[in-house]
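I am still learning, so would you mind making up any protein sequence you like and the tokens describing how it folds?
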Amino acid sequence: MKGPLFYAKILLFGEYGIIKDSKGLAIPFNAYRGALKSSEDLSGKALDSNGNLEKFYTYLSNLKTDLVTFNLEELKKDIENGMYFDSSIPQGYGVGSSGALVASIYDKYASNKITVLENLTRDKLLNLKSVFSLMESFFHGKSSGLDPLNSYLSLPILINSKDNVEPAGIPSQKEGKGAVFLLDSEQIGETEPMVNIFMNKMKNEGFRKMISEEFSTTTDACIEDFLQGNVKSLFGNVKSLSKIVLKNFKPMIPSAFHKVWEKGISTNDYYLKLCGSGGGGYILGFTEDFAKAQKSLKDYKLELVYRF
């Protein structure tokens, strides 16, 4: 048995903001992927994955929902026969490792599933997002359902609000100097503790005001610029966003990267922002000159995501 491939995702803009109903933009990232496989002789990571699938099966069989039903007998049998999720997507890196797994389980075991080939109305997209939110909550405690949605559809997704998501056309890549890239913090980040820090901060009126008046409006402007291909304006807004995040989301930025973050803002060689919930994993970078950013960040591992 070998299932179809499901890809990683990158939330270009909208981390934390989408929890509070501002805009977000997520794109598939095909450098990393995963698929369901099975083996009679499990060891190492495959054995761990099989054990995780067993716990996930228990979670799904106890779900009380009218939104979706699964072929649980088949799932149980396949797990007993050595099924595991074979994935190159790094875990705890903010690129949707659990999202790809959720998408693959839905694809194979959901009864009456919504397929990628049908006309994806807003209702169908919201239904999928709700189902994926329920499923992925097993991994994170609370999930927007966006990562699995992105992985399942393998399309850029624009989140206008909680109840309004749509596939987005993003400008095709150019052979320019500018780039979006990933910077490897070489630390694992855990989603749940970071989201808890954010939720605690949201109890503070000043922080809430900053989210709605600065963070969300700047994020929305970045998304607008990116989708319209307004590169010059985009970098101005990304610089503002980088400053806002450094000032207000320090606990989510690994301490070893506070100075690196500041350096980007002061030199304009690159601008950094969170990739996912932060706390480790990847940090997302934007630069008008990738060669210059590479030189400036020569001590770190960078991965190219998109070219301007």
Remarks:
- The chain has a mean pLDDT of 93.
- The chain has ten helices and eleven strands.
